[in-house]
Amino acid sequence: MARWWPEPTAGDIVWCHFPDNINPRLKPRPALILVVFDDDAPEFTVRVAYGTSQRTTKLYRGEFAILHDKNPAAYEEANLSFDTKFNLRQVLELPFSTDWFSVPPAAPHGQIPKLGTLHPSMVRAVQAAFQAVSE
Known about the structure:
Layout (H helix, E strand, L loop, with lengths): L11 E5 L12 E9 L7 E8 L10 E4 L5 H7 L5 E12 L18 E4 L5 H12 L1
Antiparallel strand pairs: 1-2, 1-6, 2-3, 3-5, 4-5
């Protein structure tokens, strides 16, 4: 039976079993929480954007990257292990429960799925990615 996590915040970077079709993937990955729905609190639903450490130097429409060399403050606040790009074209709404989210290695924020937080310096990049997918 799924256990529900405490309420997250938009801008949190979390450890997500982003689904492949319908089923959660075994390998968790970073995801960016874009929206938190609290209609059924204390059971929350979140809209998350897919994150990957693959091909981070090549960005496509709707993507932005957090790169260690380009923005060390953002990289540190996100608490990522590798350069990571987020794809705002791959966005899903998921229950914020143990079915879809898990505690990351080293549990930087305690026994919750949170890895880190989106640094304020990344807001323009996120807005540009969002605008690109909205056109």
